Amino acid sequence: MSTPVIHDPQPTQSNATSAPAETLNVVLAGNPNVGKSLFFNAYTGMYVNVSNFPGTTVDVPKGQIDPQTNLMDTPGVYGLSAMSEEEQVAEDAILGGDVVINVVSAISLERDLFLTQQIIDYGKPLIVAVNQMDEAKARNLQVDLAKLEQLLGVPVLPTVAVMNEGMEAVKQAIRSARLGQTTPDAPPPADIKALEANLGHRMQIYGLRRQYVNAMARQVVKDTSQPGSVGQLLSQRIGYALLNPVVAFFSMLVILYALYQVIGIWVAGDLVSLTEGKFMLGQDAGAWPGLVPIMQGIISKGFAPGSLIYNILGGEFGVLTMSVRYIFGVLFPLVLGFYIYISILEDCGYLPRIAVISDGLLTKIGLNGRAVIPLILGLGCVTMATVSTRVLTSNRERTIASTILAITIPCSAQLGVLIALMAKAGGVKAWLVYCLVLFATLIVLGTILNKMLPGRSTSLILDLPPMRIPNFKNIARKTWVRTVVFLKEAAPLFILGSLLVAVLQATHLLEAIEAGLGPAIKAVLHLPYETAQVFIMGLVRRDFGAAGLYLMAGRLTHAQLLTCLMVITLFVPCFASATVIWKERGIKESTFVLAGSWLIAFGIGALLARVLEFFPALG
User: What is the pTM of this model?
Assistant: First the structure.
């Protein structure tokens, strides 16, 4: 097949068709990491996650630019082959829309224009926003936008979305969208979709399109950099260095240690002592008595201290005392700090490189590097991470990833509390033991599932964004939105959980449960009887169980606290996560996973308890 020659298209009726004047359904489309979500946020005033790795958008967020213009965001995809759920979602939205805003990256036009040309071949009116023009300039790449517009036959506009440059011009150009110049020798738009359903025809059409796009990119992109130029090397050398296994390993150790220092020492120590100790409890706060004592005083005016209602509302597990104290005094600063930390890693382009480095390891447990996306998202919220397993290409991989998420990945709220408790369980030494045991559990569990389930892992295809200085506005907005969403989800369940435990305590049923479970917990985990209430609370939410552990931490030895931390982590996921697992994986599979989590949690806990007794220096 010969390399096509690109000719400037002449204006024709087919490529000059204007978009209709009535209400439009506009669809954002593009490859991963090109900045689509920034356009959606800017145009609708709504917020969708802005990250430097694919898989964060698996649905179609919808909003309005104005009363006459609807806007939909789509998952980042490299083509519309419907080979994965995200490609199918993107294809359905694009084919169902009136106009497409195709966002491409100025630093990877040869790759991105394949999707552009495919949308044109499908007969959809569009405009092209060439984003990351600042990155192209930094790399000494010159993009001839006028030439690109001639070759595509559609409006082409430059943007720098993170700086809001060019965004208004793209919005104003929406109704100027038109049909473009289709791939020479390709079938007409009316027939192409049906022909691509046949693998042989699809490969032939894809070959024509790829050669056409490559020839186009050679005409519009010019690299003017000199070998070894500083501007080109700084970002790229950092990015390449992080792909080195040795550098990646030590960088991960540094990041984990920094996470412990930031969350476990500074936030959990200094900040929580302010929010919980002074603001909530009034410790060393001068004239301020503390919010919890104030609430207890108000409750005591209507109900005598020690009475049933007083204990339910203002007792140790009171709905108006424990919930408020823990959610806003402890959980809020820990979750906020954790999300800031993770958002910085996302925004600078570090996380996708972890996917590449982890590919070899994840392949051994039946996954590939792409699975690191839901695993990392699980550190924020296991519920949404389970949904994001849809980005994996096979049902087998989704089963393995969902199981690992349910059992071995702590969510942000739980992880924040766990790291805070590490300082009380032995500091950095406890943090290292915890991470090693959790990692070993993940590997063993994944290996067993890989052996049990038929099939094999698929190959990794992942785009690496450039390393860049994080955008403060993006980090701040992303952190705040995630934190607010978490509080909206967690607060009702915390209130419900504290009500349940308070009623159990006030009616002395909690003592009965502790008496029933206590001997087994003491025999298996070598923990005191009262830790039974931690596991009861953990049935409501993992982090609610961590809350109970946080309150009784002073009564446990280092070894007992570390054992309890590990069991709480491996314990059943929260109610919301369990519901999503049931929805995504079905009753039979999810029941097996949730039942297995009990056996694994208490099995690992029992083993760890005995190791810590045999090697007391570890605890």
Answer: 0.66
